[in-house]
Structures
1.
Amino acid sequence: MAQILLHGNLHVTIYEVDKIGDGGGRGFFQKIVGNIGEKVGIGNGISKLYATIDLEKARVGRTRILENEAANPRWYESFHIYCAHLASNVIFTVKDVNPIGATLVGRAYIPVEEILDGEEIDRWIEILDENKNPIHAGSKIHVKLQYFDITKDHNLGRGIRGSKYPGVPYTFFSQRQGCRVSLYQDAHIPDNFIPKIPLASGEYYEPHRCWEDVFDSITNAKHLIYITGWSVYTEISLVRDSRRPKPGGDITLGDLLKKKASEGVRVLMLVWDDRTSVGLLKKGWTDGHT
């Protein structure tokens, strides 16, 4: 099936699965691993089920994990997905978390062609195995989705025009004035390394020290600290140059954030799913889609 570019907003709700296996949390989820024939998964009566939304190989949404609800897992979770993906299907995958990673329960498919007209789709879809055959007991998943093409966005191409621009919807922070972006050449620059870089204004670029500026921003924060990154190592010190000491600069990033939180500053962190930063997870088995 040909892939079609989805460029716009995809609104999806995953409701529930009508039944899985024989409804008792056994049978289907027993899995034989290794040569010793050990049974794992929820064949022991414990289920940990979650569902995902995929645009081909791109995972764009995932529900919470439901424990011990194998007979009729009900998530009732909604997602607003900004997409620019080539796909032939919107794929709903149901998995079970177990000691070796995650076991595939099955996948349900809605062809992309069916959502292009922007009409809302609300239906039960058959769950299929890896060979696209119906899984045991004919299980189905109830989903709702609607696609809004980017060309239908009334804000497209308007830019920011004063207070009438609503900003990007479904985001944590609303649009604000007075924001700025600081560009850095390196995390730290020695005093004798200041190249002459002319700017369009006729002035010269003045490099700053990233870690020191981050320290100053956190130290001076009065209301909110929001940190994002691939991984955040809280044991580092931001002030490291002995020739440029700062009051309070002898503590780690983690202690600095705890100090600000104790002062009443709201501290928020968004860390990407970086398994390599967690030693225990390096030893585990994964299927690449957990």
2.
Amino acid sequence: MKKILFGLALLGVLAGGCKSRQAGQQAGAYPEEKLGWKLGSQAYTFNRFDFFQAVAKIDSCKLRYVEAFPGQRLGGGMEGRMDFRMKPEVREQVLTKLKAAGVTLYGFGVVTPGSEKDWKQLFEFAKAMGIRTITSEPKVADLDMIASLCETYKINVALHNHPKPSIYWNVDFALESIAGKSKYLGLCADIGHWVRSGLDPVACLKKARGHVLHMHFKDLNERSAKAHDVHWGSGASDIPAVLAELKAQRFKGMISAEYEYNWRNNAPDVAASVAFFRSAL
């Protein structure tokens, strides 16, 4: 009996050791997790493909989070498109397939409903799907209503900054628009679009300290409105300084890779960018 008990104890120790090594390997593979960063991809990066093809590409880039965008064909044997109006049974199917793929739906957007009724439906969709952050470019007049919904549902809405002349291209205006409304109402900092608008992404992040809820991550070949994506760390966005600022701010949330170039075969570009990102940490 003593031998049997000793053997069982030894197996327990070995199993615990294996789990510890697996946890350590996982931490090494995803160093951003220690900082509370959820590194993933905007499905728009793979908009030439259906949603579940995009999920497979995201997984191939060693990423575990997806920000879905409205209108993408679902695929994966499913009819319809990614839409906050989808039926409950379709939502369940999507979540089941995502779980099997090992990819978590974290964000949704950029989406801007046209009425309070549609905003409520969007929040109900986000709640049902486990979405933490909605990215949007809403009317300034709707922000009080949106802030109230944020408080009710405890779900973030992050204002996205397409390049000028879009409504929130200027970080100062975006911050003025959300001032004093809700901790769940903040910014989706698209650092590439800031560069396209002639702004310094690090300076913009410093101004937005405490209000950055979500990131759209890009590096561009030059500082101009016509710039295109390049591998992170090789362009004009000063990625190392951006990472240092996010660390200094103790940013928590999703960092969505957006690689809007080489559309038909950009998964290797995303993978190379992710490898640089993790080595830079």
